[in-house]
């Protein structure tokens, strides 16, 4: 399950988004029991929650989920933001191999001055056989600001680099990956397409068009090439760069060779840094198709006074036959997850028949996303 549960502080700070709601349904004392009831009802093995407020997490959310058999890991936003992301899993089903938080704020890089975060876990299924494969679960909440596509893409690249590091196996392949969260980007946008297609040429792309949240003319500065500076340490392939340290031989000629090799390496890195092409090496599919099969109307994952769109996703590394194989896909032999079922989403019209979100029964301004997978062993 992926679920943005709407932090109470954010609800109160943005009360203009909830003018359509009856006041009692907005109180945390009303909302949390409803959210917990949903979580109990769907009984997912893994929960990826966003907008988890720190004080509520400590006093109510974590204890409640632990009593349901979940082990909980939490990463709060940096700075003074009181909410974050949690990944909770049934400890009867998985054991925890590693916890890897990702902070998108970098004080040494002016571009990265926002406090969003990601969280990446490596889990091992508890199954009665010696070599069960591990599975990588990632959760994030990217920057909202529709006019800062440069920051959004860089945050995504940082998350993908961490996933690549965590999910990488000794034989060069990746273990199965599920990447959940609120990506603050709509289906078909350049950011969404980059996740699904594994490549993006952003030359000439306006920063306000990256996420597709707005069709206005604001934020029309063009993305710089490269988007992020080299000192971030992440390549255009969205992996951590390993500094090349050429071996220096004892002989003079060897030393010259090493210097020439170093110059060559620097030139190569410089050439890569000026490319306007981003890539990643995962073969990711979306659990949802974003349009209802019968009517063709768009699904929505969030609905309040000002908008009703899809911004929440569950992406997963599909088996070979599940995903369209693009060029270079042989690099990305990940596989292992077969999508069996998903919880249906609703249209904007559906939601306004129950007075939008939050309402008496649905206590966030987002809907929960739910998928059932088979893990191939």
Sequence of strands across the biggest β-sheet: 5-6-7-8-14-11
Largest sheet: 6 strands, mixed
Radius of gyration: 22 Å
Arithmetic mean of pLDDT: 90
Which structural category fits the helices and strands? Answer: alpha+beta
What order do the helices and strands follow? EHHEHEEEEEHEHEHEEEEEEHE
Q: In terms of per-residue confidence, which ranges show pLDDT below 50 for 5 or more consecutive residues?
A: 263-267, 322-334
DSSP helix fraction = 10-25%
User: Rough shape?
Assistant: globular
Distance between the termini: 22 Å
Number of helices: 7
Strand content: 15-25%
Number of strands: 16
Please, could you describe this protein's structure?
The protein has 377 residues and is of the alpha+beta class. It is 24% helix and 24% strand. The chain has helices spanning 8-13, 28-42, 54-67, 149-167, 190-197, 252-273, 348-352; strands at residues 2-4, 46-53, 70-76, 83-90, 94-103, 117-125, 135-141, 177-182, 199-201, 277-279, 284-286, 302-304, 307-309, 312-317, 337-342, 371-375. The strands form 5 sheets. Strands 5-6-7-8-14-11 form a 6-stranded mixed β-sheet, covered by helices on one side. It has a 4-stranded mixed β-sheet with strand order 1-2-4-3. A two-stranded antiparallel ribbon has the order 9-10. Strand 12 (302-304) and strand 13 form a beta hairpin. Residues 263-267 and 322-334 have low confidence and may be disordered.
């Amino acid at each position: 399950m992926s679920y943005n549960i709407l932090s109470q502080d954010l609800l109160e700070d943005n009360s203009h988004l909830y003018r359509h709601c009856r006041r009692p349904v907005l109180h945390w004392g009303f909302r949390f029991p409803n959210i917990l009831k949903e979580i109990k009802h769907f009984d997912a093995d893994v929960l990826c929650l966003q907008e988890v407020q720190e004080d509520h997490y400590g006093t109510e959310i974590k204890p409640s989920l632990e009593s349901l058999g979940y082990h909980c890991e939490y990463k709060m936003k940096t700075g003074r933001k009181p909410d974050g992301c949690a990944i909770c899993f049934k400890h009867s089903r998985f054991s925890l191999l590693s916890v890897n938080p990702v902070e998108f704020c970098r004080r040494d890089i002016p571009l990265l001055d926002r406090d969003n975060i990601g969280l990446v876990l490596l889990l091992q299924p508890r199954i009665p056989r010696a070599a069960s494969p591990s599975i990588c679960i990632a959760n994030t909440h990217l920057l909202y600001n529709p006019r800062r596509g440069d920051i959004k893409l860089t945050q995504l690249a940082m998350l993908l680099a961490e996933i690549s590091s965590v999910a990488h196996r000794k034989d060069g392949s990746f273990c199965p990956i599920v990447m959940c969260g609120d990506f603050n980007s709509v289906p078909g946008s350049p950011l969404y397409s980059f996740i699904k297609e594994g490549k993006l040429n952003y030359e000439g792309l306006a920063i306000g068009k990256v996420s597709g949240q707005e069709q206005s003319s604001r934020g029309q500065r063009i993305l710089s090439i490269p988007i992020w500076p080299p000192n971030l340490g992440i390549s255009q392939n969205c992996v951590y760069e390993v500094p090349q340290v050429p071996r220096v031989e004892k002989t003079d000629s060897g030393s010259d060779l090493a210097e020439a090799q170093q110059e060559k390496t620097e030139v190569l890195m410089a050439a890569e840094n000026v490319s306007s092409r981003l890539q990643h090496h995962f073969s990711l599919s979306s659990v949802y198709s974003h349009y209802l099969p019968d009517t063709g109307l768009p699904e929505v994952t969030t609905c309040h006074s000002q908008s009703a769109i899809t911004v929440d996703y569950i992406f997963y590394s599909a088996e070979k036959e599940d995903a369209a194989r693009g060029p270079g896909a042989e690099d990305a032999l990940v596989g292992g997850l077969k999508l069996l079922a998903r919880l249906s989403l609703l249209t904007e019209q559906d939601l306004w028949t129950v007075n939008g979100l939050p309402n008496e029964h649905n206590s966030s301004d987002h809907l929960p996303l739910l998928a059932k997978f088979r893990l191939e062993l």
